[in-house]
Design brief:
- Chain A: Keywords: Membrane, Transmembrane, Transmembrane helix, Transport.
- Chain A: One of its GO terms (biological process) is transmembrane transport.
- Chain A: It is found in: Cell membrane.
- Chain A: InterPro entries: MetI-like, MetI-like_sf.
- The complex is a heterodimer of chains A (about 325) and B (about 300).
- Chain A is mostly helical and about 325 residues long.
- Chain A has a domain of about 200 residues: Orthogonal Bundle (MetI-like fold).
- Chain A is built from 15 helices and no strands.
- In chain A, α11 packs antiparallel against α14 and α11 packs across α15.
- In chain B, α8 packs antiparallel against α9.
- The chains are: A mainly alpha (about 325), B mainly alpha (about 300).
- At the A-B interface, α1, α2, α5, α6 and α7 of A face α1, α3, α4, α5 and α6 of B.
Chain lengths: ~325, ~300
């Protein structure tokens, strides 16, 4: 009995709160800015933010120091004399094996891999997502589930057969081969993304277009494409960061002269020969991280949406 | 994975397909459009996987050869100390990174949910490492953890000369050095997913809890977290399937060293397939990875999609 009455009381109290809220906006309660609660919240968040920012700071600071200053020891101290020499050296002179033309080679390789991979994978995935969302046929749902399962299979299991296939076609080791690989492994997640988006568009649009006599490609080109700009941006973000950051495919499917930037960076920094030039290493690292970082800072909220969907790619 | 996508899929009724001739040619354009993808899924995803599993029972070395030797490769695999170390490392890394990223991610998200100022600035800061590659992450932390110039060197130069913190050069704790970098890169994502989950909790729940005088931490622990079960499961699957793939970070940070103290299964696979010319071992190891992922994914897929929609 007591329970029922407390429940009723609670219900009444909630109702009271509700009506109070429904009564209309009231000004915010004046709060003390420096309450203990606030100090704790901002204190913890601030400390965490410091931890997250620290590596970026260390990278920037180290890359602007000369080697003698780096050897003095403190990686956290700001540079006494700012020099851009490490940046120049990382871009144009750093050595991997016998090549000493710096990261620029890897950068342009990455660009040449990135642009076609992004375009092809998004084109294929958007059409497939559209077909799966709007033109279902017997077995299309089953195929979709199969595709999603495919997204979880570790790449290591599929790499070697793919090497054989590409070798048979004769494009193993070329940039074309790597573009195909990126297109293949980008498919599941992108198709999922596009399918969900197209399925969320009002069906009436699609039906109206069909009554007006539009076919598969017409509806895609004239109705779906113009309406789906945001999801294309999200897909581009996922693919640009994903492909730029890839290491495994780069190292398996390319040769030293076609290495993408991440692979070359790793070779420069972790090479055993020669004197370690930490400032050049950090400049090279920053240069490699610059592209996804710019994408991140420019795209803001869309990036969050993209990674939530793209996290499956790992 | 549709859970993580904000716009969930509404189930749209299938167009009626009965009573018409030419089943094969219905939606022909749609089928043509899907052909490349169906081919890829069939040939690479399934054909490739099955091929690898089958060839893991052969004694292929430099080139794949179809001479079957039963479970020999697996016996050799589990007898190899390097593989055992890899598995141990993956377990330590996996369990700790699951615990830490869930706890830290949730706490950060809960703090961010207190209607604070500068929320988007904080989110930007917590999430930016996720945009960076594992290679970049590994190299930065290699530098910060450098015993001569990094954290250890600085603490020593402050006067505490016996201070030792050299995870990347100490075989016993090297995996924790990698964990620090991995957490730095990945917790932002967990925080974001958790924050989205928290924002999905009905405001009335909080009001009801406050009216009942339940302290905030208890509301989180006993009301909000159980309500966020789907978010937790999705996050768990995401982190879990990411952990199994752990490769680039180790290559960049330690190259598996010192010795082979920080080896992981994905690196074992790569090294045996492409460096040691011992394909059979590589196939067997990658099949074990597939098995691990299956153990994570199948129960989840069953829970998520089991009764509701099949196929």
């Amino acid at each position: 009995m007591a329970n029922v009455s407390t429940l009723n009381a609670t219900g009444a109290a909630i109702d009271a709160v509700r009506t109070e809220i429904a009564a209309g906006p009231r000004g915010k309660k004046p709060k003390k800015v420096l309450s203990r609660r606030n100090i704790m919240i901002y204190g913890i968040l601030g400390l965490a933010a410091l931890y997250y920012l620290l590596p970026l700071y260390v990278m920037v600071v180290t890359s602007l120091k000369g080697m003698p200053e780096v050897r003095l020891g403190n990686i956290f101290s700001p540079p006494m004399e700012i020099t851009f020499e490490p940046w120049v050296k990382a871009w144009a002179e750093a050595c991997t094996g016998l090549n000493c033309d710096g990261l620029s080679r890897g950068f342009w390789n990455s660009v040449r891999i990135l642009v076609p991979s992004v375009i092809v994978s998004i084109a294929v995935a958007s059409v497939s997502g559209y077909a799966l969302a709007n033109w279902r046929f017997k077995g299309s749902e089953l195929f979709f589930s199969v595709l999603i399962i495919g997204a979880f299979i570790p790449y290591q299991v599929m790499i070697y057969p793919l090497v054989i296939i590409l070798r048979e076609i004769g494009i193993y080791g070329s940039l074309t081969g790597l573009v195909i690989v990126h297109t293949i492994f980008g498919m599941p997640i992108l198709t999922l993304l596009f399918r969900n988006y197209f399925a969320g568009l009002p069906e009436e649009l699609f039906k109206a277009a069909r009554i007006d006599g539009a076919g598969f490609w017409q509806i895609y080109g004239r109705i779906m494409l113009p309406m789906s700009l945001p999801i294309f941006v999200v897909a581009i973000i996922i693919q640009v960061t994903g492909i730029w950051n890839d290491f495994l495919f780069g190292v398996v499917f390319t040769r030293p002269d076609t290495y993408p930037m991440t692979v070359q960076l790793n070779n420069i920094v972790n090479s055993v020969q020669g004197v370690k030039e930490y400032n050049v290493n950090m400049a090279a690292t920053l240069l490699t991280g610059a592209v996804p970082l710019i994408v991140y800072f420019v795209s803001g909220r869309l990036f969050v949406r993209g990674i939530a969907a793209g996290a499956v790619k790992g | 994975m549709s859970r993580t996508v904000p716009s969930a899929t509404p189930s749209r009724p299938l167009p009626k397909s009965s009573g018409r001739p030419n089943q094969l040619f219905r939606n022909l354009n749609s089928k043509i459009a899907l052909t490349p993808m169906i081919l890829v899924a069939a040939v690479v995803f399934f054909g490739g996987t099955i091929w690898t599993v089958i060839y893991s029972f052969t004694n292929s070395r430099l080139l794949p050869r179809a001479s079957f030797v039963g479970f020999d490769q697996y016996e050799r695999l589990w007898a190899s100390s390097r593989w055992i170390i890899s598995i141990q490392n993956l377990l330590i890394y996996g369990i700790l990174s699951l615990i830490f990223s869930l706890v830290v991610g949730f706490v950060l998200a809960a703090l961010m949910d207190q209607k604070i100022r500068f929320e988007s600035a904080f989110r930007t800061i917590f999430l930016y490492p996720f945009a960076l590659s594992f290679i970049v992450t590994g190299l930065v932390w290699q530098w910060i953890l450098n015993p001569e110039f990094g954290v250890q060197g600085i603490v020593r130069s402050l006067g505490w000369t016996s201070f030792t913190f050299d995870p990347l050069y100490n075989p016993d704790i090297v995996i924790y050095g990698i964990l620090i970098a991995g957490l730095w890169q990945g917790t932002g994502l967990v925080m974001c997913l958790m924050l989205a989950g928290l924002r999905g909790i009905d405001e009335d729940i909080w009001k009801a809890a406050r009216v009942d005088g339940i302290p905030m931490w208890r509301t989180y622990l006993f009301v909000v977290i159980p309500m966020m079960r789907p978010v937790f499961i999705t996050t768990l699957v995401l982190i879990g399937s990411g952990i199994v793939k752990l490769y680039d970070l180790v290559v960049a940070q330690t190259s598996g060293g010192p010795g082979n103290a920080s080896e992981v299964p994905a690196k074992y696979v790569y090294d045996y397939m492409f460096q040691a010319q011992n394909l059979g071992q590589g196939f067997a190891a990658s099949t074990m990875m597939l098995l691990t992922v299956a153990i994570i994914i199948i129960p989840w897929a069953y829970l998520e999609f089991g009764g509701k929609k099949r196929g």
